[in-house]
Structures are given as C-alpha cells and as structure tokens.
Specification:
Length: about 130
C-alpha cells in the first residue's frame, strides 16, 4: 500500500497523506485517495493484479460513457507496470453521493439473501 501511495503521489504530482482501501476482492481493490491535508480527492484508484485488466476496463467505461444512457465515472488514466512488478491501476472519478469514507458493510446473512433473490429473478424468463 505504501508503494501504491508513493507511485500515485508521483503520478498525480501531489503528495497523498494516505490511501485507504474501500473494497477488496481477490483480483482487485478500490482505494480512496487523500491529499496532504487529509481531504478526500475527487477520484478513486482501482488496482488489478492481472495485467491488462485496468486498460480493458478503462476502454469499456469510456465506451459506455459515450454511447450509453447511464452516468459512468470519468476515466482519468491507467497506470501500468511494464518494467517492474506492481498492480495496474485505473484512476476514475468518485461519483457524488457515494461516500468512500464510511463504506457500507452488508451483514453476511443479508448479503446471501439478497444474492439468492437476484439469482431467482435471473432464472425467471418472460413467456411469449
């Protein structure tokens, strides 16, 4: 995490006081960035352990933003590591109304029930 903070500080040209993990999955993590005074920056960093995924996702988000009807976050850039090891990072806009300082946590029982409902709804096909 310290290496990520240092690299992002260098890339952005601004000292970051901290980088806080908002969401973590096996192959990706979402990071909130804070300036030298501790204020949240209006962008998020999403890191990927698999090379090329950040670039692919940047292309998909940009395409959806241009041709879709749903508001997509602005893609500010992609940081790749081709000469030395490290995660690829996608820099995206932090959408308004989504708090990254206090991420919502779904209790395991509720999360499993919600997932079951979604799976059931996906199985039902319209007749006709």
């Amino acid at each position: 995490m310290e290496q990520l903070r240092t690299e992002l500080s260098h890339l952005l040209g601004e000292k970051l006081s901290r980088v806080e993990c908002v969401s973590e999955k096996p192959l990706t993590a979402l990071w909130a960035l804070y300036d030298a005074q501790g204020n949240p920056l209006p962008l998020l960093a999403r890191s990927f352990t698999t090379p090329g995924v950040a670039r692919q996702l940047a292309w998909k988000i940009s395409t959806l933003a241009r041709s879709g009807s749903v508001r997509m976050p602005v893609v500010y850039g992609v940081m790749t590591h081709e000469e030395h090891p490290g995660p690829d990072v996608l820099l995206i806009e932090r959408l308004r109304g989504v708090s990254v300082e206090a991420p919502a946590r779904t209790p395991p029982a509720l999360g499993a029930a919600a997932g079951a409902d979604r799976r059931s709804a996906a199985v039902v096909a319209p007749s006709g």
